[in-house]
Amino acid sequence: MKKTFLILSLAIFCFSCSNNQNGSEATASSTSENPQVEKGMNLVAKSDCLGCHKINETSVGPAYNLVAAKYTNTEESINTLAEKVQKGGSGNWGAVPMAAHPNISKEDAELMVKYVLSLKDVK
């Protein structure tokens, strides 16, 4: 069982590290004209996030609009989720762990989270 979980985790990690060249999924219109949200959207589009996440459908990871629905747009949530982006984690959305992204700065991770949280009402 441990070997299966380890192999699955490794496969997910390798998949998440692939660079998604098609950033169209990250360009869903946000209800906000906030420049920070736009910067966050651009950072998501340039990252490997879209290898595991989609805006409004579950993939390897949860859909961004589901993340936005689960968390309030507060400084506490932004800090918590930005830390998840940097350190990775598991257990909040199932058994598949989220890969850590230690090369993303705290400020960039916060902008990315602000973008995701802006998608609360995207259908």
Overview in brief:
By secondary structure, the protein is mostly helical. It has 5 helices and no strands. It has a single domain, classed as Orthogonal Bundle (Cytochrome Bc1 Complex, Chain D, domain 2), CATH 1.10.760.10.
Report on the architecture of this protein:
With 123 residues, the protein is an all-alpha fold. The protein has one domain (2-117): Cytochrome c-like domain (Cytochrome Bc1 Complex, Chain D, domain 2). Helix content is 48%, strand content 0%. It has helices spanning 2-16, 35-46, 64-70, 75-87, 106-117. Helix 2 packs across helix 5 (106-117) and helix 4 (75-87) crosses helix 5. The radius of gyration is 14 Å and the shape is globular. The termini are far apart. The model is unreliable at 1-32 (pLDDT under 50).
